[in-house]
Specification:
Distance between the termini: 21 Å
Shape: globular
Radius of gyration: 16 Å
Helix content: 40-55%
Number of strands: 3
Strand content: 5-15%
Structural class: mainly alpha
Order of helices and strands: HHHEEHHE
């Protein structure tokens, strides 16, 4: 139901089929500067896809209060990142005839430091965790 109501079934065409390099260029233009992440950092020795996230450097208050795009657009971009990731994993798994996984690495160093508030303490942030 959500996929149809949100338009994700058609919106996914914006990202599905892109090479990792092209996808990262697409993402770079749309990412939120207050939450550092790389949704494709290559593949490890076993061929699994790597993601890196740096929630320790996220500024949750700025994420909510100093927006360059609407929160709805930010959530749409996040959903499209996940759509692309799932598409890539399926594509690679079929091509290689094995299950390819996505390994997400989260660097929590700096969480709540330097005046950055942790998301659970920022009004309006919790629904987006």
């Amino acid at each position: 139901k959500w996929r149809v109501e949100s338009g994700m079934d058609t919106a996914r065409n914006e990202v599905v089929g892109r090479s990792p390099e092209d996808f990262l260029q697409w993402f770079e233009k749309r990412k939120n500067p207050h939450f550092e992440m790389c949704p494709y950092a290559g593949r490890n020795q076993e061929g699994h896809v790597l993601w890196f996230m740096h929630p320790g450097y996220a500024d949750s208050a700025k994420f909510i209060n100093h927006r360059q795009i609407s929160l709805d657009e930010d959530l749409r971009v996040t959903a499209l990142v996940l759509e692309w990731t799932m598409w890539l994993l399926e594509k690679l798994s079929r091509e290689e005839q094995r299950m390819v996984y996505c390994i997400k690495i989260a660097d929590l160093n700096g969480l709540g430091a330097d005046g950055r508030r942790v998301g659970v303490f920022v009004p309006g942030y919790m629904p987006h965790l």
